[in-house]
Design goal:
five-stranded parallel β-sheet, alpha/beta, Rossmann fold, 293 residues, 34% helix, 8 helices, seven-stranded parallel β-sheet
């Protein structure tokens, strides 16, 4: 079974319910360190958690293969950390899953960037029954898959640019292209994005909390992405360049309403359009999937 978008309490309830209705002797939860879940009390049924990086370690891999049997419940929790379906960690995890009859897959979003990533979760849940297949919405109908839509929405807070800002931006952009050489081309959007922050500082209001890529603003109410807190709502001054990191931010904070401070310059428009396109793909997926209640 696959459950998308559940919070920690709901995950605990799903595990408890499964153990009560099946002959389970032991439960093992696999989680990344940053998204380890609170384990429920299952009475006489032992439960433990194994960290993502441990999955491929010899000290873990072979003992687990010896241990896991038909009456184990394996819980795959927030394990979608790369879109590489043949990733070594995924392969090791699938070896564990192949040895038992019971698994629950928890993930906050159904994919990292697009629906092809969902096939990784489906592989976990179905013993790779559709290995080699691309995503098809029909696959959602044949398995126990339920989603809780996070109903994300985006609001744009536009900056009033000073005279000459657009020309200064174009000069910076052209300079980056001319000096790129053999460097990673992703340097250009990253540096341009940070560069536009000089026109956003005056928009920062003391009563709100903001998040940025780095600490260049030097204000008490502007934090960086690695330091955000669960349950706190932030106004975005910068986007995360990588989709997975942006997803992690939304997952960690639980934020549904996203306000972004934009200059309206091309780099800001690019990130906004990318996020809006991702939201559309997300809503299309939710529309086809079963609803968690």
């Amino acid at each position: 079974m696959i459950r998308i978008g559940l919070n920690d309490t709901q995950k605990q309830q799903e595990i408890e319910k499964y153990v009560k209705t099946h002959d389970i002797k032991s439960v093992i939860v696999f989680s990344p360190k940053k998204f380890e879940m609170t384990l429920p009390d299952l009475g006489d049924v032992p439960i433990r958690q194994i960290e993502y990086k441990e999955v491929i370690m010899y000290r873990t891999f072979y003992p687990l293969l010896e241990e896991i049997g038909k009456n184990h419940l394996l819980v795959v929790n927030e394990f979608l950390r790369t879109d590489d379906r043949s990733n070594l960690t995924y392969n090791c995890l699938r070896h564990y899953l192949d040895q038992c009859r019971h698994q629950i897959v928890f993930e906050y979003f159904p994919f990292i960037n697009d629906t092809k990533d969902f096939m990784i979760l489906l592989d976990f849940d179905t013993k790779s029954k559709r290995k080699g297949f691309g995503f098809d919405k029909e696959f959602l109908k044949g398995e126990d898959i339920l989603c809780q839509n996070q109903h994300l929405n985006l609001n744009i807070d536009m900056v009033n640019l000073p005279a000459g800002a657009a020309e200064e931006y174009e000069k910076k952009k052209n300079g980056l292209f001319e000096s790129i050489g053999n460097r990673d081309p992703d340097v250009i959007p990253r540096e341009l994005h940070v560069f536009t922050g000089k026109w956003k500082k005056d928009e920062i209001r003391p009563e709100l909390q903001y998040v940025a890529r780095n600490a260049r603003y030097k204000l008490p109410n502007v934090t960086t992405y690695p330091n955000v807190k669960p349950g706190q709502e932030y106004v975005l001054l910068d986007w995360q360049h990588r989709r997975l990191r942006m997803n992690d931010f939304l997952k960690h904070t639980g934020q549904h309403h996203i306000t972004y401070v934009s200059t309206g310059l091309s780099i800001d428009n690019y990130y906004v359009k990318e996020f809006q396109a991702w939201l559309e793909r997300l809503e299309e997926f939710y529309a086809e999937a079963g609803i968690y209640q």
